[in-house]
Amino acid sequence: MSRLSCFGLAVWIISISIAKAATPVVLVEHQGKYQGYFEQPRLGLVVYQFNTSASLYWPAAKLFKTDAETTLKLEQQRTALLNRLAALKHEFQQDSDPALAASVEKIEKDIASWELAGNMNLPLDPDSVRAKKSLNPLLAAGQYTLRVGTRPTELPMQGLVAEYKMPLRNAVSVDSYLGSISILEGGSHSFVYVIPAFGEFYIAKTGLWNKSYQEVSPGSLLFIPFEQRHLPSEFSDINEQIVELLLHKVVTQ
Questions:
Q1: Which residue in 77, 81, 74, 136 sits closest to 104, CA to CA?
Q2: DSSP state, 97?
Q3: What is the pTM of this model?
């Protein structure tokens, strides 16, 4: 190989190395602004750098992973769920139950419109993250979206309900919301799913016979599921499938 060729190869290798070095390992977006990190940052550093206002309400904050691999898996999950819902709607149509079929169709349209990203399900409050090493992990390489704003004043809702949000009330039980919303045909009055900003979702009992007092924290989302008695046995897990995907719906703050 000539000296010129060797020189050219060396320049190419150096340029590739520089390009790689100039590419952030982690890129975080928040409200259209980006912060790049050339080494894996700890979560505490990220929330510290984005904690620019005293009005930010971190207990309701969420961090989503938005790389292509994560997005592809969620799109595959969405497609599988929509296929199952289409089959459920077909069964209701075959049984001459247009109201239940219309309820399924409403959920189909909602799910098709969701913006999806990988919910990291991490506590993001700066004070908590700083105080406990276990809550301050290194972020894996990739792209992220941070959603944090002021304290939520509305309670978003999904599922078999006509409304998509209603004013958030202080110190009231979940069941108190059900009297102010329009539950669609087949929707449950006896239990709803509560999806908090952080942590595991849970089922709140809201029927006259099983009611229990459970408050909803700011940043939570309510999912009104199918009442189990309306579901054919082969679709008995459809509520859980919807909730598992709903966990990754990108919130607007």
A1: 81
A2: -
A3: 0.88
